[in-house]
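Re: Re: ligand-bound prediction request (bumping)

Still looking for help on this. To restate: I need the protein modeled with zinc ion bound, output as structure tokens. Inputs repeated here so nobody has to scroll up.
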Amino acid sequence: MLDIVRIPVLSDNYVWLVHEPACGETMVVDPAVAAPVLAEAEARGWRIGQIWNTHWHPDHTGGNQAIKAATGCVVTAPAAEAARIPTLDRAVGEGDIVRLGTVEAKVLEVPAHTAGHIAFHFAGEDVIFVGDTLFAMGCGRLFEGSADQMYSNLQRLAQLPTQTEVYCAHEYTASNGRFALTVEPGNRALVERMTAVEAARRAGQATIPTTIGLERDTNPFMRASSVETFAERRLGKDNFRG
Ligand code: ZN
Ligand code: FE
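Reply:
Sorry for the wait, this slipped through. Here it is.
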């Protein structure tokens, strides 16, 4: 139902180009930069009509202005971060519906990495764009929010159907997995996943998207049984070198 194209940019960002074939509408999630995104759309004969931002950080919005200038697209971004995203056209928050052609996504507010961070959930497609909130075996750093907030975000995301494909904004998987193994060395699903991840990375392959099911089984932040345990793990990862 959706064609989703991964565009690797900067050192480890993924920009997601999303095309709805029935109407031929195209949007881009978190364009860190413009040129590779415009080139990819052009190569596919797709016209970018929208940008959706999950949060204000420059590695998620840096391409907004140039893509908007080149295409006249409409920028949808978190209402709570409107002042920090000057290219914003439509401000959205919890429960708002955003549309790409015939399909719709619901906005979830997931504050913690930034104060107004949002995610876009295409429930009918089993797809969610999570920005820097949830990563494969990891989660975002707490720059503008609390451990309480991030823990409840992850608990909420864990309730989504297991088959939900999770599109994260960074390839942090191998490093996250090495930390996860220090937390749960006896978790067989984690050990198996890391073997596959190391092989994929050696072969130069991406490990994103992940799924909610995989994260439930292997993500030490989502699997924390209390906010205290979560906070301890988050601090551990902040100081982890490996
Ligand atoms: Zn960020
Ligand atoms: Fe980021």
